[in-house]
Design brief:
By secondary structure, the protein is an alpha+beta fold. Helices cover 43% and strands 16% of the residues. It has 14 helices and 13 strands. Strand 6 and strand 7 form a beta hairpin. Helix 5 runs antiparallel to helix 8, helix 5 packs across helix 9 and helix 9 crosses helix 11. It starts with 9 loop residues before the first helix and ends with a helix. This is Winged helix DNA-binding domain-containing protein.
Length: 393
Amino acid sequence: MTRGRRHIGVAERRARLALRHRLAGTARAATPEEVAASLVALHGSDPATVHLAVAARLAEPAKAVAETERALYEDRTLVRMHGMRHTVFVFPSGLTAVVHASTGLAVAARERAALLRDMAVAGAPDAAWLADVEEATLAALARRGQATAAELAVDEPRLREQFVHAAGKSYEGVHTVSSRLLRVLGVEGKVVRGRPLGSWTSGRFRWAPAPAHPAMDVAGAQAALLRRWLRACGPATEADLKWWTGWRVTEVRSALAAIDAEEVALDEGTGYVADGDTEPVAAPEEPWAALLPALDPTAMGWQHRDWYLDPVLRPLLFDRSGNVGPTVWWNGRVVGGWAQRPDGGIVWRIPEAGVRREAAASVEAEAGQLRALLGATRVTPRFRTPLERELTA
């Protein structure tokens, strides 16, 4: 793992990002499947992010919504499911087994234990009762193909049962068996989110049976996922890898060793690339701009972000929980933010005057394509940030 210590500087890291994340004009993709494969995963906790992240990387962005819906709900070549850090992502279907084994199993065990514990504390029925409800729910979902929690409760009325969570605490609340059980089944890889209720921006989803995939051992799956991610996003530090995967540092180190990852020198210390990926990467010949949505996987890809994000911009572009808002990119770095006004207009701001003048025409061209894509649709990020709020005021 220490075959070379070639230094990879900021300029080359930005060049890799531009090309491998399909952001430079010459690197744009033809399909949502190509985009997802290039990024490994698309953040899926905000439904609009998936479609807008695809649109920003397609050669024909006007096709993004229709093509992404085709991939998600018709061809099922993309799957929305829980993944790293207990977060919902959209993955290529061929990667679901790797994600489930590498990150989902541990989370699933904790989620099921927490549900059983909460139900026991509340005096709700026991594990055998829950297992019976689960079996009936999965059978009902198999018959229906896709269904909401309310529709499943018609077939299995016990899903409507409620219990008090955290009684006596400031965050006390009433939980429904359906919401908690379906969440557990999701992280266990038994169900996935299907077609939404309403438009592509809706956060209310139907549930669908999860695609069948072969069982994998945890260590092998972790090695496979880390190799895939380093090909897309390397170089990265150990801290970046631990943050992105949500694994223990010992798991990260084991996976790095298993794939013969190569050490490189970064400005912030030791980094890693996939085996054989130390050759220099040249920057795209043409300058490029991109308007990426809130929670975009490129903006959220690394824990250490100074090489593509000026720390001065952080308070404007992130909320207090660390969620990034809509960002404006110029030649491999974040230079500002954008938002959609209530009247549908796309507005953007680049604080640095010199960059603003240099990038204005390209950014406005991207904004025009985004306006055409959205049309009458209005998109408000799930996690709002200071600059996005200010631009829409």
